[in-house]
Design a protein that fits this description.
This protein is mainly α. Helices cover 63% and strands 0% of the residues. The longest helix is centred in the N-terminal third of the chain and has 25 residues. Helix 6 packs parallel to helix 9, helix 9 runs antiparallel to helix 10 and helix 10 runs parallel beside helix 12. 45% of the residues are buried.
């Protein structure tokens, strides 16, 4: 029973149940894509299932990831009138805020918070609205996740596609586990990304930049979508995004610039499921070179080149450009936590490219991290995750004679100019 409440004690059981759920959801998705057509009854079944599955996971205490406890903690620190970037949770100055419900479950209690200022403002608001209740916060996040389903339906209709294809996101086990189960911040970020894409489709690029700025103030990666939405005159949306980022930081100034240091420490010290990043660094080590800063800066330069290519690639649809940016980010980061992959699943409803679909299912195997002592992701798990992904991207790219379709083939039906 304890293993059911704490899935870190039963990682193999979790993987088995996840595989069964993925097979069932995959079959339902295949039937919907193949035979769903535009029957309204199909969309109703998808919506009812989406609500039901999230309701089942809502009361479960997060165990595979306890990031939501850090949201509660950072909000509590701010309620006490303390800058969340000033002290780590285990600092003597915060001893009076510790309890037996939240503090013992915090990851890295010796780290200053890595969450950007916009997220901190959200945590403070949640602390005020929910009194730090994990259950209530998860409930709010589930409502926002359901809103994402609605926005995906709007995107599908804008592209002349069957709205029932939202099943790929609405019933995806990874989405359910990470958002309804663990309560990750992606529940807030993904509707912002989808809203920015809808604004971009309408040509409202400044508003899209503003919305992406809000997303970037919560978690930095939505800013990667700016090259996809800004168009040929990027200055206004870029200024809009930058203005939001600066405004969100003002309440925490003057004070230490700890967020930058904390993010740098996270990128330098955290090492989880890195994919191709692992083999690149191993190659540097074999050559007798220090891979650290070289690979980090190389990844940033690569993302910069990809961003310019996406910005200049006019014929690509907005959805493909967004998938290119988010997909490249997942391939290059040193820590591929399962909930990071959730960000591309809404786009797969429009562009169901099989290597990305594979990753969205196989990434759950990384929770076998908890199956061995000391905790680590087995090499064979990373092989299962990433070898089919890279082979599939190469195959799709070769078949189309273009690398960009490997990240997002053109959606069937009407697309924007």
């Amino acid at each position: 029973m304890e293993a059911t409440r704490n899935l870190t004690l039963a990682p193999w059981r979790f993987v088995f149940l996840f595989a069964v759920a993925t097979a069932a959801a995959g079959m339902a998705g295949w039937l919907t894509f193949r035979y769903g057509g535009r029957q309204r009854s199909v969309l109703w079944v998808v919506c009812v299932g989406a609500i039901l599955f999230r309701a089942i996971l809502w009361p479960m205490a997060p165990s595979l990831s306890t990031d939501i406890l850090r949201y509660v903690w950072d909000g509590r620190v701010q309620q006490a009138g303390i800058n969340p970037y000033q002290f780590p949770p285990n600092a003597p100055e915060l001893a009076s805020l510790r309890d037996e419900a939240i503090f013992p479950g915090l990851n890295h209690p010796d780290w200053i918070s890595v969450y950007p200022p916009g997220a901190q403002l959200l945590f403070r608001a949640m602390a005020w609205l929910t009194s730090g209740s994990v259950l209530v916060i998860k409930g709010i996040f589930i409502l926002l996740d359901l809103a994402s389903c609605g926005l995906i339906v709007l995107l599908l209709r804008r592209h002349g596609m069957d709205p029932g294809r939202v099943i790929l996101y609405a019933w995806h086990p990874l989405v359910l586990v990470e958002l309804a189960g663990s309560g990750h911040l992606e529940s807030v970020v993904i509707p912002l990304i989808l809203g920015a894409l809808l604004l971009g489709l309408d040509g409202r690029v400044t508003a899209a930049g503003l919305v992406l700025g809000i997303g970037g103030a919560l978690k930095l990666y939505p800013l990667l979508l700016l090259p996809a939405v800004v168009g040929r005159r990027p200055w206004r949306p870029l200024v809009a995004a930058a203005s939001v980022m600066v405004a969100s930081a003002l309440p925490f100034l003057p004070g230490p610039v700890a967020p930058l240091g904390a993010v740098h420490r996270f990128m330098r010290e955290e090492w989880f499921n890195p994919g191709i990043r692992l083999w690149i660094e191993r190659g540097f080590e074999i050559l007798g070179m220090d891979p650290g800063s070289t690979v980090r800066w190389g990844s940033l330069v690569a993302m910069g080149f990809i961003g310019v290519a996406v910005w200049l690639r006019g014929p690509l649809s907005l959805v493909k450009r967004a998938l290119w940016m988010l997909g490249a980010h997942l391939l290059l980061i040193p820590n591929l936590f399962p909930w990071y992959v959730v960000s591309i699943i809404p786009l797969l409803c429009l562009t169901p490219i099989w290597p990305w679909l594979w990753l969205s299912a196989a990434v759950a195997l990384s929770y076998l991290f908890f199956a061995q002592i000391p905790w680590s992701v087995p090499v064979w798990v990373m092989a299962i995750e990433f070898v089919p992904l890279w082979a599939g991207l190469l195959m799709v790219g070769w078949q189309s004679r273009s690398w960009l379709p490997a990240f997002g083939a053109a959606p069937t039906g009407r697309t924007e100019a």
